[in-house]
């Protein structure tokens, strides 16, 4: 890997009439996220321009979106997607769930920091203002980034959680959301699998 060579390839792909999209694909798709960050820095050092801005000017449509997404750190890309999901009228709740409920604690912290850096806003506050009810409560709990990340499974706890979930949900009219939040947002994924098996 040579960031200098790659930055020069991107520059030559955007130089003159027409853009050499194949060259852009060749460079960016064969590099890790960390390497692409180094290419961006090298491009800035060599040409005193942001590579993203140059590419925005030369590309369009879905290809432009894909290339710009490749240039983001994963946490930045996810922060942008979360912001889009909450922007304007209506909220893409499925996207909020997909991103926030599948990330580990460190990734959640990084996404929150990227969101603050990119939009000068607090992600938790935005989630609170764009969601409500049970979904809001569980997403805010997930955003605390305090999920147990051990791989050990406690069978007794799984049985107890399954019982608590049954009592809070199907076992009677109405639901006790706190029981669901604690189990779903705080337990490790291994522990959740054991709880779901015990619930069946």
From TrEMBL:
<dbReference type="GO" id="GO:0005509">
    <property type="term" value="F:calcium ion binding"/>
</dbReference>
<dbReference type="Pfam" id="PF00191">
    <property type="entry name" value="Annexin"/>
</dbReference>
<dbReference type="GO" id="GO:0055074">
    <property type="term" value="P:calcium ion homeostasis"/>
</dbReference>
<dbReference type="GO" id="GO:0034704">
    <property type="term" value="C:calcium channel complex"/>
</dbReference>
<dbReference type="InterPro" id="IPR001464">
    <property type="entry name" value="Annexin"/>
</dbReference>
<dbReference type="GO" id="GO:0001786">
    <property type="term" value="F:phosphatidylserine binding"/>
</dbReference>
<dbReference type="GO" id="GO:0005634">
    <property type="term" value="C:nucleus"/>
</dbReference>
<protein>
    <recommendedName>
        <fullName>Annexin</fullName>
    </recommendedName>
</protein>
<dbReference type="GO" id="GO:0005544">
    <property type="term" value="F:calcium-dependent phospholipid binding"/>
</dbReference>
<dbReference type="InterPro" id="IPR037104">
    <property type="entry name" value="Annexin_sf"/>
</dbReference>
<keyword id="KW-0106">Calcium</keyword>
<keyword id="KW-0677">Repeat</keyword>
<keyword id="KW-0111">Calcium/phospholipid-binding</keyword>
<dbReference type="GO" id="GO:0005737">
    <property type="term" value="C:cytoplasm"/>
</dbReference>
<keyword id="KW-0041">Annexin</keyword>
<comment type="similarity">
    <text>Belongs to the annexin family.</text>
</comment>
<dbReference type="InterPro" id="IPR018502">
    <property type="entry name" value="Annexin_repeat"/>
</dbReference>
<dbReference type="InterPro" id="IPR018252">
    <property type="entry name" value="Annexin_repeat_CS"/>
</dbReference>
<dbReference type="GO" id="GO:0005262">
    <property type="term" value="F:calcium channel activity"/>
</dbReference>
<dbReference type="GO" id="GO:0012506">
    <property type="term" value="C:vesicle membrane"/>
</dbReference>
<dbReference type="GO" id="GO:0005886">
    <property type="term" value="C:plasma membrane"/>
</dbReference>
